[in-house]
What we know:
The chain is mainly α and 156 residues long. The chain is built from five helices and no strands. Belongs to the Dps family.
Amino acid sequence: xxxxxxxxxxxxxxxxxxxxxxxxxxxxxxxxxxxxxxxxxxxxxxxxxxxxxxxxxxxxxxxxxxxxxxxxxxxxxxxxxxxxxxxxxxxxxxxxxxxxxxxxxxxxxxxxxxxxxxxxxxxxxxxxxxxxxxxxxxxxxxxxxxxxxxxxxxxx
Length: 156
């Protein structure tokens, strides 16, 4: 059955492609954050272990919301590691970095997700796609706050 929600097929496809990149970045950040939760060591262990758990749990919910929006627009959501690796701008960490380096890498990951979300906004705005605009705004708010909190742990 055709989709008739007031957004053209061309715009829905473009928005879904942007959201697929956001999904890939978010899932890669989820996996990195979960990895760091498991492997963090040092004097900040308990604080970071708990903080990373809160962050990866939030990301797990976010990837579902992003994928469901892609589906609501009538496009398939990517869902494999190879698809995510192709679409994501985030790089996987190598080895087990120090706790401080984990924080730095997560700040960079949070900021990359924000940039991806921001890049989608022009086509979303042009198409008057308020549900996607709302999703993107919420995601940017969460990632900006998380980046700030992580960055604050590095301040002298």
